[in-house]
Model the fold of this input.
Amino acid sequence: MALSEVTITKAILERFFQKFLDCVEVDIAVVGAGPAGMVASYFLAKAGRKVAIFERKLSIGGGMWGGGMMFNEIVVQEAGKEILDLFGVRTQEYQPGYFTADAIEAATTICSSVMKAGVKIFNCITVEDVVIRQGRVIGLVITWSPVQMTGLHVDPLTITAGTVIDSTGHDTEVLRVIERKADIKLFTETGKIMGERSLWSEKAERLTIENTREICPGVYVAGMAANAAFGGPRMGPIFGGMLLSGRRVAEVILTRG
Ligand code: 48F
Done:
């Protein structure tokens, strides 16, 4: 049978639109497919929630691929290792309390489990705005990343979500747009994004978990975005806090029903 290019095209379009249409209304919309967003999605999907991740880049994994300064190994502590174990990412003890994993194995293995749990990941899509009704974020405004990168004058599309997770890392992009455009006070000391502080691994890893919570009606923060929102330090290439924050945000959301 000769291959038909038109059939190939139709297959891609129809399958993509089935997937996309199914995610126009979701329980949980996760912004950013870094370690925190992926782990959060996994636990939420496992608990039966309909979850979609929107990721600006072509690749998933956020800051994980590059390990520390592009040396592609990551470090986790004992508690973080438990999450890597759960996903089947192999680790090696370096010194008591310090474990290493191959950054590529970590990113790809976690992503594979996330997909198999039923999460849909839309890469190359940037979240550029939110939809707010009665003081609550109820949706995301999305566009193709190349449209944003090239500055094309094209209107975006919208999806709705029961809950949004900002797991955009250092830039807290969802919160920034809320702060800029909406009269919503964030649940921080100042009511605004407090901003990330300089690197302090021990303190940052602990605070990441504490700062993983609801930041305004309809939106939760996880991972580095949680620390940046609440004024915590960055932690460098130790990833336990990111993984644990992903699990924590899922637990908090599931507890709220
Ligand atoms: O930065 P990222 O990996 O966030 P994380 O899960 O983990 C942080 C660590 O990688 C590292 C660290 C210590 O361990 O400090 O930095 O908190 O992943 C964030 C993802 O969000 C995407 C971005 O491309 C990245 O893959 N992203 C950011 N803004 C947007 C976005 C946006 N507006 N729309 C869609 N995706």
In short: The radius of gyration is 18 Å. The chain has a mean pLDDT of 97. The longest helix spans residues 5-22.
